[in-house]
Amino acid sequence: MTLPAPSSFRTNGWLVVALLWVTACLNYLDRLMITTMRGSIKDAIPMTEAQFGLLTTVVLIVYGLGSPFAGYFADRFNRSSVIIGSLLAWSIVTGLTAYAKTYDQLLTLRALLALAQVAAVPASVALVVDYHRGATRSLASGLLLSGAMAGGAFSGLGGWIAAGPGWEFAHKLFGAIGIGYALVLVFLLRDSPTVESAAAPGQPQLPPVRIGEAFRGLLTNRDYLMLLVYNCVAGAVGWSVVGWMPTYMKEQFNLTQGTAGMTTTIYLNTAALVGLIVGGKWADRWSRSNERARIIVPIIGLCIAAPAVLLLTNAPTLAMAIVGLVGYGVGRYFADANMMPILCLLVDSRYRATSWGICSLVSTIVGGVGIYVGGLLRDAQIDISRIFQFAVINLLVAVALLFYIYRRAPKTAPAPVVAT
């Protein structure tokens, strides 16, 4: 295989980031917009509050359980084809959601949406690091994930459209946009040359990835297992903040539901975007002299996030609480920008998407449990600030876990293991 010139290779890499940024944005927009159109949907399809909440819970459950297998699928087959197929499938499901007439139909379509979406993110992050192999890897990963943050912010468009033309029209519109964009990707998106996974001259050709081999290789890797524990801890913190911060803001500062929700969403998502870009760029620059800087930068970020949450829970004014929320968002997302680059240091390059999928599984499940436990604490009349005080402890545990990984991590990415 003839590889492109380095300058052309970098250009193609940034085009891939741009293309997949839109895909990530549509992924989260289609997934989350239903949460912004609660009134419109409940008027059309009668349901209890618990049933409405289940529309999101079922997505988390299906998405989490399917992530490891979807990751393997992205490692085993052509990544760009997996992404395009996933986008096309979930866009069709999004459009079909407009025709749901009963709660059971709506719940089924939500489960199908998660099943269709689950392969896109593991394949996308793996494809981005396939293209960005040097001092642009963390920034490229952060920019890609910023598309998800943008999609979460843009999901509010669903509620706005639902209040006008209707919630059905919103699903038809974004379903059609996704189908059209999938056709664009057919002509523009391609897999990268497999430089890192190709066998060296005179060496045996690498065997195709097998699911049992992939799972066994990852789950017997001590450093990767420690990273899974880290993802459990970080997932509990992240989902608790997303799930309970609007309620905390509303009750602590006597805000309306709408104001509390908008305040949390705008400041947290904006801070996350900054954290993804700054954390990615900083790690890339530092990695020129120390590749393990991709672990150091997240450690620094979490050391910023922990006191920021402490400030947030003890803030006497809304302004100070926002400062704490922004500090948490920026610091916390230093880690997310570097998650796939860290995986590149720890695991066989053939299993990158699978490793991401397993991380998504544990993060999603533990995060969902964390939100539920927060509800139990609320039912027990325990102050909601206790949830975030526990989050501070979790963040410090996460720092310790990353420091352990840093001490053991190799200075360069491991070579693929060739079966003999």
Question: Could you walk me through the main structural features you see in this protein, from its secondary elements to its overall organization?
Answer:
The chain has 420 residues and is an all-alpha fold. The protein folds into two domains: 1-192, Growth Hormone, Chain: A (Up-down Bundle); 212-412, MFS general substrate transporter like domains (Growth Hormone, Chain: A), CATH 1.20.1250.20. Helix content is 79%, strand content 0%. Helix 6 (120-131) runs antiparallel to helix 7, helix 6 crosses helix 16 (352-379) and helix 7 runs antiparallel to helix 12. Residues 1-11 and 195-203 have low confidence and may be disordered.
Number of domain modules: 2
- Count of helix runs: 17
Give the overall form. Answer: globular
CATH class of the largest domain: Mainly Alpha
- Global Rg: 21 Å
Relevant CATH superfamily of the largest domain: MFS general substrate transporter like domains
Average pLDDT taken over every residue: 84
DSSP E strands, number? 0
The CATH topology annotation of the largest domain reads as Growth Hormone, Chain: A
Terminal Cα span = 24 Å
Task: Note poorly predicted spans.
Answer: 1-11, 195-203
The largest pleated sheet is described as: none
User: Can you tell me the CATH architecture of the largest domain?
Assistant: Up-down Bundle
- Assess the beta-strand content as a share of residues: under 5%
Q: What's the SSE pattern?
A: HHHHHHHHHHHHHHHHH
